[in-house]
Amino acid sequence: MRAAVLHEIGQDKLEVLDDVEAVGFGPGKVKLRVRATGLCHSDVSAMSGVLPQPAPFIPGHEGAGEVVDIGDGVTGLSAGDRVLVCWLPACGACPACKRGQTQLCLAGFMNAGTPNFKRPGGDVFGFAGTGTFTEEVVVDAGCAVPIPDDVPFEIAALIGCGVTTGLGAAINTARVEAGSSVAVIGCGGVGISTIQGARVQGAAQIVAVDPVESRREAALRFGATEAVAPDGLADAKQRITAGEGFDYVFEVVGKSVTARTAYESTRRGGTLCVVGAGAMDDNFQVNMFELFFDEKRILPSMYGGGDVLRSYERAIGLWRAGRIDLESMITHRVQLAEINDAIDQMRTGEALRTCIEL
């Protein structure tokens, strides 16, 4: 079976091999044939060590495909079903799930420490307990979410992570109000989805901030009312808000320096929503006086900040109604053998979202 493998954390290239086997199939598990998978920035962050992940591993967590086989005790799924991959399934029994905060369930993270692939040289992990840069993968049954027949695999793959994260940040976490002002810092796939979420919520002004010109141009097509380079944010703040700051600012980069910029761009009493996943040693700081005096809400958003199954359904409903554009988010399509070209395109900002077709 073919798969793209990172041998050691810190390497910047994947090796596409044909001697990988999906393992771990049994009770409560399903085997999937991956048909399409998106390249998410979190995959690259795991490769570099920004996000913790044991190696060797197969990146990829934004996938969709067909059920090949189901293990004992699995209900609601059958061979041949079309599914998307949920990399953070809810167990339904932990305290977070019982509180209704299923996006904070840790059961899925536990899977990341158990290898679900092997090669002649030993075990191989799947990123976030999945690993979709491969032809087949074995995952917990909760990771396989059925999708309607009218949803293409590449669209379902996007909904499996980036779209759900971005839409949810605007709708679930920040709860953007109609008529408000919004700034989104970082306009890759998740940032573009955040912009679309703010537009769905009825924001009056949506300023997209990104250093890459092609991403700024894309942001305008997806609902931003204007797009600026990072050095233009202060001017936009002055023009649009008379210097007060935006009602909502979304940080979709995952760095303390941009989070600080986002904080300073948020009005007193406004909302800073942190969507980007950053490193454990990158500390964001505010002083105690400004924290008290400015009364700005600082809201992290994990996987869209809400029940992911409901969020999937909402995304499909909005897509069907033409309220969000998912097809145009896919700017590049590659085969698995071209995965390193796709990673380079993401690093330079050339690609908004790349679909790897298997």
Could you tell me the number of beta strands? Answer: 19
The number of helical runs is 12
- Overall pLDDT: 95
- Helical content class: 25-40%
Strand fraction: 25-35%
Structure description:
With 358 residues, this protein is of the alpha/beta class. The model has no long low-confidence stretch (mean pLDDT 95). α5 runs parallel beside α6 (189-201). Helices cover 30% and strands 26% of the residues. The longest helix has 13 residues, at 189-201. Strands 4, 6, 7, 10, 11, 18 and 19 form a 7-stranded mixed beta sheet that branches. A 6-stranded parallel beta sheet has the order 14-13-12-15-16-17, with helices on both faces. The protein has helices at residues 41-48, 95-98, 107-111, 153-159, 162-173, 189-201, 213-221, 233-241, 256-265, 288-294, 308-320, 339-348, and strands at 3-5, 15-17, 21-22, 29-39, 57-58, 62-70, 82-85, 117-119, 122-126, 136-140, 144-146, 181-185, 205-209, 226-228, 246-251, 266-274, 297-300, 330-335, 353-357. α7 links the parallel β13 and β14 (226-228). The N and C termini lie close together (11 Å).
